[in-house]
Amino acid sequence: MKINTNLVLFLVMVLLTAGMAIEHSRLAIIPLIIAIITGINIIAKENDEKSEIKKVKIINNDKGEGNISIIIGVVIFLLFIIVIASLLGSYRIETGTGAIITEVNGNKVPITDVGWHTRTPLLTDVEKYSVVNNNIYFPADYLELESRFKGDAQSGAIGFDIKTTDDKVVDTGAVMSFEIVDLIQFGVKNTHPQEQLQKAYDSLVFNYLQSQSSEKITTQITSINDELYQKLKESKIEDQFGIKVNSVSLLRPTFTKIALDALAEKQAIQAKSEGELNAAKNRAEAIETIAKAQKNQADILKNVPQEQLDFNAKLALYDTLKGSPNVIWVIPSGQPVVLTK
After folding, report:
1. Given 213, 233, 255, which residue is the final one in a domain?
2. Residue 327 lies in a domain
3. pTM higher than the cut 0.70
4. CA distance 32 to 29
5. Alpha carbons 19 and 26: distance in angstroms, whole number
6. pLDDT at residue 223 tops 90
């Protein structure tokens, strides 16, 4: 008995494709392609044999073999439909996930039951969501910036620049952990829930941080986390999006390099200004002291006779010049000279 290996391979690939399609495996496309190639090969060989056989008996047998070609073609078509329907017409909901399916008429229906579900291929859309352990970052591209960050703590800004109440700039980020508790509120009543939630979260965090001092943001992180958590709880963000906020944490709060440079320049200018102010103050005090001394001296000399003042002046001049070898002393004739030891 002659065994047609192509036919056996075709039947095996058909069964394998059908089984994998039932399991909704995307790998079903592989045995499907092999089955199609094998089927085309069988039909081609059969057509070649038919063109060579001339006898009536063989021709009668060809009708049966022609039926095989038709059957193979029908099987390939049915397999193709099954695989396409399996891949495009079904989806799976896993534990911790949910989905919003947009039906043909435009209605949005939440799906939370775990397992496989069917839909109309190409005419319906399915949007899947993780309902637990979700994180949202401020700013939205924080993780991308962090992955590209390779500088030291001051040369790379990976958060958002916040101008604080004390007129300084702090670079920081924040992450909020949440879960979806109402999928209808989240995905049906909000047309673009992820984008809308991101904007609402960014606005709330930004406004809060701008109302704080730089010292508090950079040194009292636990306090900031608690206050920010309360702000989120008190806001309408949970009701608006059908979520539950579990925690919020500030990420890497630090002064930016530009802010630090500006702060150092400001301190240098301030120190210089204070130095100039102190120097001017000292000069003013010195002038005032000299003026007071001159006034006191004038008050003392006001009651001294003029002759005594002239004598004191001459005596002072003598004391100044007496040690100089370049001074010639001339004593007028007839003037008394008094020598003292």
Report:
1. 255
2. no
3. no
4. 5
5. 12
6. yes
Crossing angle of helices 5-22 and 29-52, rounded to 10°? 150
Residue labelled with tokens 């002038």: 287
Q: In whole angstroms, what is the distance from residue 303 CA to residue 289 CA? A: 23
* Domain shared by 65 and 9, yes or no: yes
In a domain, 193, yes or no: yes
Rg of the chain over Cα atoms, rounded to whole angstroms, equals 49
Rounded CA-CA distance 253/219 in Å is 9
CA distance 292 to 19: 112
Ramachandran angles phi, psi of 89, nearest 5°: -105, 15
Residues 125 and 138 in one domain: no
Do 12 and 73 form a contact (C-beta atoms < 8 A)?
A: no
256 contacts 169 by C-beta, under 8 angstroms: yes
Residue 11's domain spans which residues?
5-88
Residue in the structure block whose two tokens are 């003392």: 300
List pLDDT tens digits, range 31-88.
778 878 877 777 777 666 666 654 444 444 444 445 666 777 777 777 777 777 666 7
Q: Is the pLDDT of residue 1 over 60?
A: no
3-class SS at 122?
coil
Q: Residue 5: name the closest of 42, 40, 31 by CA.
A: 42
Which of 227, 255, 283 is the last residue before a domain boundary? Answer: 255
The total of structural domains in the chain comes to: 4
